[in-house]
Amino acid sequence: MAGFASAEERWQTLPEPTAMPKPDQSGYAPVNGIQMYYAVFGAGDPVLLIHGGLGHADIWASQVATLSKTHKVIVADSRGHGRSTRTDQPFGYGLMASDYLALLDYLKIDKTALVGWSDGGIIGIDIALHHPERLTRLYAQAANVTTDGVDPGVMTDKTFGAYIVRSGKDYARLSKTPDEYEAFVAQMSHMWETQPAWTKEQLGTITTPTAIVAGDHDEAIKREHTEYMAAAIPGAKLVILPDVGHFASLQAPDEYNQSVLDFIDAK
């Protein structure tokens, strides 16, 4: 049994998120024709957490519990995800970035640090490219800037498969359109086929202090692509988290939280 128990490494696991703390404020913001669910916790310099594709805000529970001790933490469900509604408008990272900027306007937050995981990291890079005045720092974990940065092996990865199944169950539980998961995934997949597509020259214009972050066993993003991103963004810090994969924030929450704080609070 001992040999069996050790067969699954930490980076192969998909822990359930802990229970989300009680928010100080939550609701739905009317942005770009949708109702966007959000929640706010704590006080201090703001930090916006943006989840990955097919996920939802509650995935960040461990991060909220820690970061809200010293920061005002904002989470939301991206367009079509979780409790937020969607329209027939095609998904795109620019559109989703504009949703989050509109949410910040709604909450009267001028500037924030941003922690983005996977699609959330890509949304963060979009904001850093087009609205750098809204960001103090960007911590982008498991993001890519071109479609060829994605490892094709992810399509058959067991941990990723488990995430997609869990996300479907969460969608049925949270969404206002619980029977439309397949249609939602189809809309997202269409975006993933062509986006993002930023050039090295575009990345070279980013002025936001940026950390490009990956687990050392990330199943979805090629390591050389992560290193390319860090090299292309001026002054970017490359952070490789040990013994974790794409789902680092769930697999090693304490280490992840410390890595975030070390970066966003650096003087």
Automatic annotation (TrEMBL):
Gene3D superfamilies linked: alpha/beta hydrolase
Record-linked InterPro entries: AB_hydrolase_1, AB_hydrolase_fold
- Positions of the UniProt region annotated as Disordered: 1-24
Pfam families hit by this protein = Abhydrolase_6
Q: Give residue ranges for domain AB hydrolase-1.
A: 47-257
* GO molecular-function terms, A-Z: serine hydrolase activity
- Its recorded name reads Pimeloyl-ACP methyl ester carboxylesterase
Protein source organism: Mesorhizobium tianshanense
